[in-house]
Specification:
This protein has about 425 residues and is of the alpha/beta class. The protein contains 13 helices and 17 strands. It comes from Undibacterium danionis.
Length: about 425
């Protein structure tokens, strides 16, 4: 039976309209919102008072592709260290803008350490813990005053683990007076959204320009995050920071973050993202940056590095050769990208296929810029290599991995050099 197909479109929805917020350090400008690409950010987990350790981790995160890096500013020692961290980064040639993460005592730290306030490119304020009772409004105002004084943008970041209890009680009272009260879950959503938007409006009343404000409503449940951001996106035009807070460790954290953020990004919601992974002991903090990149690239929203297409393996591929080659070439590409992205414009669009047997190997390899089809169990010990869909050569012997790496390098030189 023939089906009369209409035009079938693909791709994410149009991005939700949002203001543009500029996060600046010297000549480096990162734009969040508007028509800018979705920005990737991360956060250090070093003791901020340890200047060298923190600067080294920031450099690693920036080199991995983090376009903003947030650091904890939780006490006088941390605040005093921020200018020295910025100076150390300058010495290392790292111009990534720094975001100061403040809770409880941010008003005091920004006032007592003006060099810290100046060195940071953006502040993160949690309206749920800036103060209690009458102090809350005063201390929030003091932080906004510092942002205005030093011309810094602010992320007003609400978290359901530290929600303003006075506001929550007010909304619960209002809800109880409704003819048809909302569920407890909906009340919580309403409190998160109200806290963020009311705090943003208050910041504007205090003199902070609307194009200096970014909002977030962090929760740890996938469906909760989707529901909250769908709703807040309808009620304001501030840029939105996406992230599943306390996402977890390993595959659980990656899957949960990917599930939540992919739905929202597909719907055009979200202007900057952070993947909050709990690292394994001794694990690489940069993993959260790599996951963020892979989400955006897999969805076709941005390109960061060449994609490696590899089959999962089956009974036809009892040898581990193709797995080792896929891992080898993927690691090689990631290691080269900090240099390649400057020297070879467009290289991040390259596709490399590493296939394990004759079933889909040649066909998939032909669709990639460079593809290799390794011999499966019982097949002839030869690996045809395809370049832009045409069989170019056949590799044999002990040095297939090294030879294939050289083929990839030659392709980059010949196809992406500025003079090519």
């Amino acid at each position: 039976m023939l089906i009369d197909l209409q035009e079938i479109s693909s791709g994410a929805h149009l991005r939700r309209a949002a203001r543009s917020v500029r996060v600046v350090y010297k000549d480096k400008v990162v734009v969040v919102g508007g028509n800018a690409p979705v920005v990737i950010q991360s956060m250090t987990n070093t003791d901020t008072a340890d200047v060298i350790a923190t600067a080294i981790q920031i450099k690693e995160l920036a080199r991995a592709g983090s376009e903003l890096v947030r650091i904890t500013v939780n006490n006088p020692e941390a605040a005093a260290a921020v200018p020295a961290i910025r100076d150390q980064l300058d010495l290392m040639g790292v111009d990534v803008p720094l975001v100061g993460d403040f809770h409880y005592n941010g008003h005091t730290l920004l006032k007592d350490f003006p060099d810290c306030a100046k060195a940071l490119s953006k502040y993160r304020i949690n309206p749920g813990n800036v103060g209690q009772g009458a102090k809350r409004d005063t201390q929030f105002a003091q932080m906004i005053e510092m942002a205005c004084r030093y011309d810094k943008p602010v992320r007003i970041g609400v978290n359901w683990g530290s929600l303003d209890q006075a506001l929550l009680a007010r909304i619960m009272d209002e809800n109880s007076n409704r003819a048809e009260p909302l569920s407890a879950q909906s009340v919580m959503y309403q409190a998160l959204i109200t806290s963020a938007i009311e705090s943003a409006h208050r910041a504007e009343e205090l003199g902070l320009a609307a194009d200096k404000i970014i909002l977030s409503c962090k929760v740890s449940g996938v469906q909760d995050l989707i529901a909250v951001y769908r709703e807040i996106g309808k009620h304001c035009d501030y840029p939105l920071h996406l992230g599943l807070t306390e996402a977890g460790m390993g595959s659980k954290g990656i899957v949960a973050s990917t599930a939540a953020l992919s739905v929202l990004l597909q719907e055009g919601i979200g202007d900057t993202i952070r993947i909050s992974l709990t690292p394994e002991p001794g694990g690489d903090r940069c993993r959260e940056v790599f996951v963020a990149q892979e989400i955006l690239q897999t969805m076709g929203l941005r390109k960061f590095m060449p994609m490696v297409i590899a089959c999962p393996g089956c009974g036809r591929t009892t040898s581990t050769v193709f797995q080792e080659l896929a891992d080898n070439i993927q690691s090689y590409l990631r290691e080269q990208m900090p240099t390649w992205k400057l020297a070879y414009p467009g290289v991040e669009s390259m596709n490399v296929a590493v296939m394990g047997c004759i079933v889909n190997g040649p066909g998939e390899s032909k669709h990639a810029n460079i593809g290799i089809s390794l011999p499966g169990t019982g097949e002839s010990p030869a690996a045809p290599v395809f370049i832009d869909g045409v069989k170019a050569m056949t590799l044999r012997g002990e040095n297939i991995a090294k030879d294939f790496q050289q083929i990839v390098l030659d392709y980059v030189h010949s196809h992406y050099a500025p003079t090519a």
